[in-house]
Amino acid sequence: xxxxxxxxxxxxxxxxxxxxxxxxxxILSAEKYRIVQAEDGEQAMQxxxxxxxxxxxxxxxxxxxxxxxxxxxxxxxxxxxxxxxVMVTSLTASEDRVQGIESGAxxxxxxxxxxxxxxxxxRSLLKIKQFTDELEHAENVLFALALSIEAKDPYTExxxxxxxxxxxxxxxxxxxxxxxxxxxxxxxxxxxxxxxxVPDQILLKPGPLTPEERKVMQQHTIVGAGICSPLKSFxxxxxxxxxxxxxxxxxxxxxxxxxxxxxLTARILQTVDIYDALTTDRPYRKAMTPDQAFALxxxxxxxxxxxxxxxxELEAMVQTTALQN
Length: 325
Hints:
Blueprint: E1 10-14, H1 18-29, E2 34-38, H2 41-49, E3 55-59, H3 67-76, E4 85-89, H4 94-103, E5 107-110, H5 115-151, H6 159-173, H7 178-190, H8 200-203, H9 211-218, H10 220-228, H11 238-243, H12 264-278, H13 290-302, H14 308-324
Parallel strand pairs: 1-2, 1-3, 3-4, 4-5
């Protein structure tokens, strides 16, 4: 977890030479930073995985795991990948810097370290880390809100997680880029976040909605996009939130988009959403088998509601997963 505002940032100094660690510690401690030290790569990884480090200064040449190896492992772990890493090295060859960049390093410092340069780089990276932590906190609040909405209905338990995982898997199968896959992973969780504005007597009504109630419910896509629009990191998620109830023939909502005018990511989430709804128990019916669900979805494709090509791809993915299991 990131440090709270009333705590000094914690900096990890990893170097197998004690005098180097002590020199950096002396400079940074004078600026009221909290320092933790590691004398090799394994010890550095242990401290990083404990989750209290805000920035890491890694010597490149350490016994066991090198600084490059530690950096690669740190950046590959979702829990630590946002920690800024500065490689501290006496290596000057361009290929060494290339290796550092490929490992995910955020900056470099040459030995012997210049005090003013060190402090300037540390301040800059810690400021970026603070902004990142604040953004991550805002995203976590949205996810928690979305899951609290899901929790109101016991029949939808786990729906968001399944939708997030399956939508991203289908996007990968379709060779969508990383930004689109991330958008679908996030969209799976928060696509219905606008339902926070829908009264419970409508949201949880067991029977059909009246025309007036349906109008209130349909506003959730617009409300949801509005809630998430201030976050620039959610820019690619907004079309999913707003358009996952559109239909190919234009009879959906909120904008009555047709065919390819409906964003592909919204159509992907929509397809997975329908399948998941059909294959889980509901108060008014038991869950369908995969074959039954896809048969019904194909009937609705003929009516012009859903994207038939995506239904085919999802069925192929489900069948492949079933064979692997």
